[in-house]
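Subject: Interface between my chains keeps coming out wrong

I've been trying for a while to get a sensible model of this assembly. When I model each chain on its own everything looks fine, but I need the whole thing in one frame so I can look at the contacts. Pasting all components below, labels as-is. Any help appreciated, I'm running out of ideas.
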Amino acid sequence: MGLAGDTQEILSAKDIGVIACTRCTRAWPAGTTTCGRCGASIKPNNNKSLQRVWALWLAGLMCYVPANMYPMLQTRTLLQVQQDTIVGGAIELVHHDAIGIAIVILLASVVIPLGKFIAIAFLAISVTKRSSMSNHQRQLLFEIVEAIGRWSMIDIFVVAIMSSLVQLDTLAAINPGIASLFFALSVIFTMLSAQAFDTKMIWDTPQKRQGTTEHD
Amino acid sequence: MACAPKHAYNVPMNDVRTLSPEHILVCPQCDAAYNLARPKTGERAVCARCHTVLIRNKHEAGIQIIALSLAIAILIVAATFFPFLTINAAGASNSASLLDAALAFSDGPLMILSLTTAALIVVVPFVRVILTVYVLSPIVLNRPPARGAMGAFRLSEALRPWSMVEIFALGCAVALIKISDLADVSFGSAFWMFAVLVFLVVIQDNLICRWSIWDSLETPKKS
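Reply #2:
Try treating it as a single job with all components included. I did that and got this:
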C-alpha cells in the first residue's frame, strides 16, 4: 500500500472494513446503515456530506448580506430616532470612546463570520484536491471554526438584552431591527454547515478516495 | 511506536482486521481504528493520529456530573424569572429578566427570533441537564439503563452546540457597557446566579466522557 507517513502505522476504520457511528462512535461492519447501539443513522457517503456543507454555507452567506445592509438596532430618544447597522453601530461606539467594545462587536459580527465562510470553503475544497496545509493544521482549523462559530450569536443576545432593558416609555427605547433575524439565520446556517463537514475526509488521503470512486 | 497513545493501542493490521467491531475503538474525528483498551481510573486514551481525547476515566465523575446538573437546573429556573438587570435614567426605571430578554423580539417576523433566543439560552440548556440526569442516574446507581436512555443521550448530544449560556453571559457584559452611556445599570439577583451558572456549565461539560456513557448504556454493570 502506497500510503505515506503515519498512515502506515495507524489504520483507518474505513481501511479495515469498519464504519463508526457518527453519534456514539461504536464500530460496525462496513455497510451498516443504522447504529445498533444508539439508533442514529450512519451515512457512509462523503460526497453527500460535502453537498450539504456547500448548500448550508451558501444559505448562510445569502443571509449575511441583508444582515449587514438593514438596521440591527433602532434607538429612539426624546429628540431623535437612530437606526444602526452592525458596522454603523460599531463606528458609533468608537465615537463614544468605547473602542474595546467596538472591537468585540466587529470581531464577533464581521471578522468571525467572514473568517468562518472562508475557513469552511477552504476545508471543503481542500478535501477534494491536494492541500498545502497538513492534516493536523486542517483538523485544528476545523476545531477552531466549530468552537468560535457559535460566539457570533453574541450580537443577537446584545440586541435582545438592550431592547428588553431599554424600554423607558417616552424617554428612550431600543428596538431590534430586521437585520437581527438575518444575522441569526446566517449564524445558524454556518453552524449547521460546519456540523455537516465530516472531519474524516481530512484524514482520508486523496489518492485513496480517487481509487475507491473509480471502483464505484 | 513513539507517538502511540498510552492506552489505546494500535495493533498491527492483521490483528485489527480480525477483531470483531465491538473490540475496536474508532476516533470520531479522524477515523483511526484502535484495539480497544480501557484506561485505568484517572487516565485517558488519546488518538495517536489527531490527538483527540477518546476516553477519559475520571474517578466518581458520574455523581459529580449529576450534582452539577441539578445545580444548573435550579439556577436556570431561578435566573429565568428573577430580575436580571435594572436601569435608571432621569427617574424612569425598568428591569428585565432572562425571559424578557429572550422575548424581546416580539413584533412581527422577529417573533421567531424570540423563540430561538429563548431556546438557546433557557430551553436547550435546561433540557440538556435534565436528560443528563435521566441518563446518568441509573448508571451511577448500578441499575439497568432508564427507558429510552439511548435516545435521550443522543438528543442531549445533538443539542450540545445549541446551548449558549456562556455566550449570553458575554453578551450581557457588552450590552452593559453599551447601555451605561445612556442610563445607570444595576445588577439584579439573577445576574449573579447566571454568572455561577456559566461556570458550572463549563465544568460539567468537561467532566462528561461520552464514550464511557455510551459504553455503560450498552453493557450495564452488574454488581
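Reply #3:
Confirming on my end. Chain A has eight helices and six strands.
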